[in-house]
Structures are given as structure tokens and as C-alpha cells.
Design a protein that fits this description.
881 residues; Rossmann fold; 16% helix
Length: 881
């Protein structure tokens, strides 16, 4: 069980070894991370484009950090118009290719462990003079819920400031999203206003768009090095949970709420051997004191300490009342390290303590903390595992916490899995005591025991029996439906304080295939979960059973192109380049920076790529921040030139948004159409936004008196709305004029003309990144994306403010604050809204949101512009561009 559920999107760096790149030699001109989380399953695509800027060939290294729980499913490079794919093969086949490469004096790339949650992928390629290379890596991960939330961690380390740096996260959850939080070092200080987020019912968007200057101001010429963490949770209104059905597969997320906590019996088994000397022992004592303070009075607990001998605070379990807790804390303060390690005797004594103290309506668990191998008493690991398995007899879980890198983690992991628990590494850092406390918090509140997931009509099921369900966690089961959804019946049976509980769907309700999930999506969730559980099962078996499970895990890994312990990725390269075989490291191996030479060096990840149906690569919506949900003209290709990497087709259904060219009202040419647009404005604590109509020609989009920056726009004469021209004014009377056909930069008498899709350009103090349907403008610490849509043969523009001016004096439509209102009463057609002390009736209508990909139509409450903006409309108009 993970301490915190994380989707570690990436830390991408392109560098020579560990040194920073020399910008005069080569430059990362585009660095994009797109992660789409659909029903807790995350697909992340990392794309980095690099140019060799000198008149000589250069070796360019590509490195990326990925979650340890993720499976890489695709890697490819585009060099001079040629695509080179990684290929997933069985480990033995890849090893043969690797050995042949080594015999020719070539090197082997690896993925190495780099810490608590990350692994590092590394490869390199030689790029000809003045040429570009595009790297693309795709990985997949099923998010786990921990302590009431899912967390997505983004670690960014490009090793240089990047002009076109973008991180986009799109979350789509059918039950609805209850909250979205953004935290981490990259969301604070100089980078704080580079983060934007939007949450609307069952979708959320987070964007991180720091300008190049902002990256320099924050972190110098070495570029950013830090984390962005996105946390969220979903609605849980149905006791049976969220069940998705599509393409013959189902995925069931079960996390009932409102259940009373079950009193627990917990025995802490603490290693005090000599290797725990110093900081380990101090941190353990500190964590234990905190944990004891968190026990509820209805809980019972025991303390066992061991080295080469075993002793306990009391022979029997003790109630967690104030008197016993005070005495137990005094005992914990005096634990000292000495002697060797008798794990067998200690765990057996803990199991015996629970056996002697049965309590109806309670949940029991053992928590073992050790930092080493068994060195006294029974030292044969298989025999210890057999003894512990017989003593526990599947009655309660055993959690094994391995302190530091010297511990035999595979031994602890196997012993935990055999007894319905998990193993967790505690890292020897300054926060080790917090890691211990954090783990305990995950299992501190059991809500159900003996959970059995039943699926009539379901086959090829993942794990369906769970010893305990804890508050803030989630049980996930996937499988195939044998016949059809009408005969498929899910049911959950469990115990709550010895009372049998059953969770079923409503009598008259039927499961229906969701139209928002593509058929292959649930299949990949099932495959991911099945492979993970097969790998865990393999650890617990021996002989023929072990080989059969290994074979099954290998076949699925190859079918779905997952890089696992049994597959490798062979990275093919241009003729004459080194062949690389990439390996997945085991948990517990020490971090390694390089992996050259013989197999196994560097704790590498074995990778390759076979071509099953690739995952749909869904670009997350360009949804604007906080207040204004304005425009989206999102190009799934997003390529700077025809030579750059082309993306696969997008699955529109899986994104729950229509394509760009959606139907619009046709207006006869003779009809006089006004300058008009229906704007969307986000609302605090409301999932349905406001919308308001503006009929005017020229709009004040942004005006920042602190920097002299202003952005004005001219509406189109069309019922579809949108802008036909945008003008950006900035320092020294410079301005950028943007229309649907071209871009013009004026600096006094000097005029420069650009066109859409031209790549990079500079315009005085402004940096322009020009794509086929997207223009990215950075001026100081402000970043504006102007998107180009085409609807029914007509082109239109709309701006999205990705980085707000750092001052507090900016005004205009782009920086309008979210509306604050409450709904007093409402129907499907209208609602009575309260704005401060004013009540109004609003009609429920819809508006096209151009700030999202494919311009979806959103429901909204229609009000006057003065009410939505809390100012007179005239404050947002200008007489000329």
C-alpha cells in the first residue's frame, strides 16, 4: 500500500551526463508533458524537441523520471524525418540483442531507481549538424487512493530554461470531482502564477506554463528542479461504488463512506538491533510516541521489541486508555539498540499475542519494522515465511516496514503479501519518522473486514478478496463480462463490527456502457491491474506454480507493451548508433546514475515496444484558469514542422468532448450580424459556470499598468462569436497584431511579418512560438496563448491567459475574478441565484467554450454582464485596438 497515491508524471532532463547543456551547442526548444487521467487511470506522454545548433554532429541525451508503479508502454524518436521505435520483447530475447551490442563495444541504457517514487529513464542519440530530434515517451499507471485523495506528482528538471515549456493535466471522472488542489515547490514563489487550474463537475484541468524569463528568475540558468503535486478526489454517493462497463470489460471502484470505524487490535514489532543505532532509533521512538497518541480509547495495542532476544511491554494486549498510553510512551522513550536480529521469534510472538486476545467486532493487524536480514534464531528466510504464514493463518494482515537500503526488501515484501499485507520502504531521510506516521495513518481506521467482491457473469477477475478496507482508501476490481450487462450482477459482502453488510445496485437499475470511456481504456486498466497482481503472486510461489504465473505475466506484458520485470525495451537507433536494452529495477535497489557495460549494472529497467493497439493519446483540454473559461482551438498534432513528431488519432469519445468543427447556426450572407459573443465565467464552489452576452466591437482583454502591457480584441460579426483580430501592446510602443491569417510585429517603423506554424520568433522583448493553430506569446512574466479555431469554414481567435501578470493591478476580461453566488432554488430551466445581497433569476442555457480542446458546449447560468463581472460593461470596452 502506497504512503501517498501519486501519479509521478516526470522530471525530464536532457543533458550531457549530469552537467547542464551548453545552449550554444544544443537547445531544448519545446518541452511538453500531457497527462490524461480517466477514471483513475493515467496515460502520460512526454515530448521533448531538441535542436543541434552547431555545424557538427552532437550526442544528445534524453532522461525522464517516471513513477515506480508505472509501466512504460511506448518510446520513439524522430530524426530527420525518420521514426525510430522502441520494441518490447521478452527479457531473454532482449538480453541476447543487448549482449550482441556489448560485444561490439556498444553501451546499454537503463532505467535506474532514484528515490521513493521515481525511476529514471535514459537514452542518447547522435544528431547531425543543425538538425532536430524529437523524443516521445508514454507510460501508464492506475492511481491508488490514499488518505482520501489521489495525488499526481510532477517532477520537473529540464536542466535549462525552455522557451516552450508546458505541462497539461486533464482529469475526467464520471462520478464527479469533489476538489482539486495544486501544491509543491513549483506552485510557490516566483512560479506561483504560472499554474492555472479549473474544475467543472466531472472534469478538471491543471496547466503549468512558466515563461523562460520566469524560469531564469526562479532557478537560474540551470532551469527548474522541483515538484508540482495535483491532488483530487471523486464523489462517492453510491454505496456499491463506481462501476464502468465498456467493450466487454468492467472496472469497479469500491470506497463506501459513512461507515463507523472498527476498533482495532494492533501489535507493533520494533527492531532494536545494533544496526538501528543512532538516527534510525531516534526517529522510530519519535514516530512510535506520535502513533500511540493517535490510538482511540476503544483500540487495544501491544509493543514488542527484539534483537537476538524478544521482549514485550506487556504480555497481553492493553486498552488505549490514558493510563496505559502514558506507561507505553515511557517504555518507548527507553528503547535502545543492541544485539542481532531474530525476526522469526518476534513476529511469532506478535501473532501469539493477537491469538490470545480475540475481540468480536474488531480488526487485528501486525506492523513489523526492521532494517536488516534475520541474523539470529531461525535465519532461513523461506522457513521464517512458512512459520509466519502458519501462525497468522490468513486471520489478519502483516505489514512489513523496511528501514533503509540494507534491508532485504524482497524477503519482507513476500512475507507481507503472503499475509494480506504490504511492504513499505522507509527511507533514511530527515522525515523518516513522518514516513512511519504516514503509513500508520493509512491503516489507522479500518471500516470493513473480510471483504468479498462478487460478480455474477464476470470472468478473468482480478483479486476479489480483501482482508480489510480502510477509511480513505479504495478497492479496485476489474474483469471481463461473460455474456452481457443484463446478466452481469455485482455485489459486495463484508463485515462491519461483526455485522454482515451487503452492497448491491438498486433493484431497478441496470449497468450501461459508458459513452465517455473508449473500449480499449478499461481493457488496459484490467491488463495493468492483472499484471501487477501476477507479479505479486509470483513472489509468493515456487516451482511449477511460479513458472505458470510468470508465463502469464509475460504474455500480458508483451500483448499490452508493458515494460515489467519480465520484458525489456530495445531502443532502436539510426545505423551505426548504439543499441540499448532498458530494464526495470526492483524496489529496494540503491539509486544508480549510469548503466553501461554488462547486464545488470545500474539496476536498469528492461524495455521494449511491441505494437498492440497503442493507447489513445488524449491531449488535455486547454481550459483557462479560475475565472474565464474562454477559448480552445487545440491541435492534437501540435507540431512545429512536418518533420516533427505526429500524434496518433485522438479518441473523442474518451474525452467526452465533441470535435472542433461542431454544428453552428448558419447565417445567410445578407443578414446583418452584430459583433457578439457569449462569454463563460467560472464560479467559486459551483460546477456550472455563468455566461453573459456582449454585443460590442472592441474589448479590453487585458491591461496591466505596472508593465504597460495591454491586449485588445475585435469580435467577429458572426453568431458563432469569437475574435477576428487581437492586438498586444507592450514596451516602447511595440505591438503584435494577430489575425486568422498572419501575425505582424511593429516596432516604430520596423515591421516583421510571420505566419501560423512558423516555429519560434522574437519580437523585441517578446518571445513568440507559432504553431499551426496556436500562438504562444511570452512577455516578461506574462504568457498568453492565442488559439485558432475553424468552424463551418470560418476561422476565429481566442486568447487564454496562461500566466497572469505578477502585479495586482491588471484588469480586463482575461483577469475577471470568479463569480461568487449561491443557488437558492433551481430547475432544469432556470434558477434563483444570490449574489451578495442581490437575488436574480437566471436561465439555464449553453455556450461554446473556446478555452477547451475541440470547443465543447457547456451548460451555464445566463446573467447580465454587469452582474457576472461585478462592474459596468463599459469598463471592459475600448474605442480602438
Amino acid at each position: 500500500m502506497e504512503r501517498v497515491v501519486r501519479l509521478t508524471l516526470l522530471g525530464l532532463l536532457l543533458a550531457f551526463g549530469t552537467a547542464a547543456p551548453i545552449k550554444e551547442d544544443w537547445d531544448i526548444y519545446s518541452f511538453h508533458i500531457n497527462s490524461t487521467v480517466t477514471s483513475r487511470y493515467a496515460t502520460t506522454v512526454i515530448t521533448s524537441r531538441v535542436v543541434n545548433r552547431v555545424d557538427a554532429q552532437k550526442e544528445i541525451h534524453f532522461q525522464v523520471r517516471i513513477p515506480k508503479n508505472a509501466f512504460i508502454s511506448k518510446f520513439r524518436m524522430r530524426i530527420e524525418g525518420e521514426m525510430y521505435d522502441g520494441v518490447v520483447k521478452a527479457k531473454e530475447q532482449a538480453q541476447q540483442q543487448y549482449t550482441e551490442a556489448v560485444s561490439r563495444g556498444e553501451s546499454a541504457g537503463v532505467i535506474s531507481s532514484v528515490g521513493r517514487t521515481l525511476e529514471e529513464f535514459k537514452t542518447s542519440v547522435t544528431v547531425a549538424a543543425l538538425q532536430k530530434v524529437t523524443f516521445e515517451l508514454t507510460y501508464e499507471e492506475l492511481l491508488k487512493r490514499t488518505l482520501g485523495k489521489y495525488e499526481l506528482q510532477i517532477h520537473a528538471r529540464p536542466m535549462q530554461p525552455v522557451k516552450d515549456f508546458k505541462m497539461d493535466v486533464y482529469i475526467n471522472e464520471k462520478p464527479g470531482i469533489t476538489f482539486v488542489q495544486v501544491k509543491g515547490g513549483l506552485s510557490t514563489n516566483a512560479l506561483a502564477n504560472a499554474v492555472t487550474k479549473t474544475h467543472a463537475h466531472n472534469q478538471a484541468w491543471v496547466h503549468f506554463y512558466p515563461t523562460e524569463q520566469q524560469q531564469v528568475n526562479c532557478c537560474g540558468e540551470q532551469g527548474m528542479n522541483g515538484d508540482l503535486v495535483v491532488a483530487y478526489d471523486v464523489n462517492r454517493d453510491v454505496s456499491l461504488g463506481d462501476i464502468m462497463v465498456s467493450g466487454g470489460y468492467f472496472v469497479h471502484h469500491f470506497a463506501p463512506s459513512g461507515l463507523p470505524p472498527i476498533p482495532k487490535n494492533v501489535v507493533f514489532i520494533i527492531d532494536r538491533s545494533g544496526s538501528m543505532h543512532g538516527n534510525k532509533m531516534r526517529q522510530t521512538r519519535r514516530a512510535l510516541l506520535h502513533i500511540l497518541g493517535d490510538l482511540a480509547e476503544e483500540d487495544y495495542f501491544g509493543l514488542i521489541i527484539f534483537d537476538n532476544s524478544v521482549s514485550s511491554w506487556k504480555r497481553e494486549l492493553s486498552q488505549a486508555n490514558s493510563e496505559n498510553l502514558a506507561a507505553a510512551k515511557e517504555f518507548a522513550r527507553n528503547i535502545r539498540d543492541a544485539g542481532s536480529t531474530d525476526i522469526n521469534a518476534a513476529v511469532l510472538q506478535g501473532a501469539e499475542m493477537l491469538k490470545r486476545n480475540p475481540r468480536d467486532g474488531s480488526a487485528s493487524l501486525l506492523i513489523l519494522l526492521t532494517d536488516g536480514d534475520p541474523t539470529s534464531g531461525v535465519t532461513n528466510k523461506e522457513r521464517i515465511q512458512d512459520n509466519v504464514r502458519k501462525a497468522i493463518n490468513k486471520k489478519y494482515p502483516l505489514y512489513c516496514l523496511g528501514f533503509g537500503y540494507d534491508v532485504n526488501f524482497e524477503f519482507l515484501e513476500t512475507m507481507a503479501l503472503e499475509n494480506n499485507g504490504v511492504a513499505r520502504r522507509i527511507y533514511e531521510d530527515s522525515d523518516a519518522d513522518l514516513q512511519l506516521q504516514g503509513f500508520y495513518e493509512e491503516v489507522a481506521n479500518p471500516l470493513l473486514t473480510d471483504v468479498i467482491m462478487i460478480y455474477v457473469g464476470g470472468i478473468d477477475l482480478t483479486k476479489t478478496n480483501f482482508s480489510q478496507y480502510y477509511n480513505g482508501s479504495e478497492i479496485v476490481v476489474a474483469g471481463l463480462i461473460d455474456n452481457n450487462t443484463e446478466t452481469f450482477t455485482p455485489r459486495v459482502v463484508a463485515l462491519s463490527k461483526s455485522i454482515k453488510m451487503e452492497f448491491e445496485s438498486e433493484k431497478d437499475s441496470r449497468l450501461e456502457s459508458t459513452g465517455t470511456i473508449s473500449d480499449h481504456h478499461l481493457q488496459r486498466v484490467w491488463a495493468y491491474l492483472t499484471v501487477k497482481q501476477l507479479l505479486d503472486k509470483e513472489l509468493q510461489l515456487s516451482g511449477a506454480g511460479k513458472e505458470n504465473v510468470k508465463k502469464e505475466a509475460l504474455e500480458l506484458s508483451l500483448k499490452y507493451s508493458f515494460v515489467t520485470q519480465h520484458t525489456s525495451m530495445v531502443v532502436t537507433k539510426p545505423p551505426g548508433e548504439n543499441t540499448q536494452v532498458l530494464h526495470k529495477p526492483k524496489e529496494g535497489e540503491k539509486p544508480s546514475r549510469h548503466g553501461h557495460g554488462q547486464a545488470g549494472v545500474g539496476h536498469g529497467v528492461r524495455f521494449g515496444f511491441a505494437p498492440p493497439p497503442p493507447p489513445a493519446r488524449m491531449q488535455p483540454p486547454d481550459y483557462d484558469d479560475q475565472s474565464v473559461m474562454l477559448f480552445a482551438g487545440y491541435n492534437p498534432v501540435m507540431a512545429e514542422s512536418q518533420d516533427d513528431l505526429q500524434y496518433d488519432s485522438l479518441d473523442f469519445h474518451s474525452m467526452n468532448v465533441p470535435p472542433t468543427d461542431i454544428s453552428a447556426t448558419e447565417v445567410p450572407p445578407t443578414t446583418q450580424v452584430p459583433w457578439h459573443h457569449k462569454f463563460l465565467l467560472g464560479a467559486e464552489n459551483q460546477t456550472i459556470p455563468l455566461c453573459y452576452d456582449v454585443s460590442a466591437k472592441h474589448l479590453k482583454l487585458l491591461q496591466d499598468p505596472d508593465t504597460g502591457l495591454s491586449v485588445n480584441g475585435e469580435l467577429r460579426q458572426s453568431l458563432q462569436g469569437g475574435l477576428q483580430e487581437i492586438v498586444i501592446h507592450y514596451k516602447n510602443d511595440q505591438r503584435i497584431e494577430v489575425n486568422t491569417n498572419s501575425i505582424t510585429v511593429r516596432d516604430g517603423q520596423h515591421v516583421k511579418a510571420f505566419h501560423w506554424g512558423q516555429d519560434h520568433a522574437t519580437a523585441g522583448s517578446a518571445t513568440l512560438i507559432l504553431r499551426d493553430n496556436e500562438m504562444d506569446v511570452s512577455i516578461g512574466d506574462t504568457r498568453i496563448v492565442i488559439l485558432l479555431h475553424q468552424r463551418k469554414g470560418e476561422k476565429l481567435l481566442w486568447p487564454v491567459l496562461r500566466q497572469f501578470p505578477s502585479g495586482n493591478n491588471a484588469e480586463g476580461i482575461l483577469v475577471a475574478k470568479p463569480a461568487v453566488f449561491s443557488i437558492l432554488q433551481g430547475t432544469s430551466l432556470s434558477a434563483r441565484l444570490r449574489f451578495h445581497n442581490r437575488e436574480v433569476t437566471a436561465l439555464r442555457t449553453s455556450a461554446v467554450d473556446y478555452s477547451k480542446p475541440f470547443a465543447p458546449t457547456l451548460e451555464c447560468w445566463s446573467v447580465s454582464p454587469e452582474l457576472a463581472l461585478q462592474k459596468e460593461l463599459s469598463d471592459f470596452l475600448v474605442t480602438q485596438l
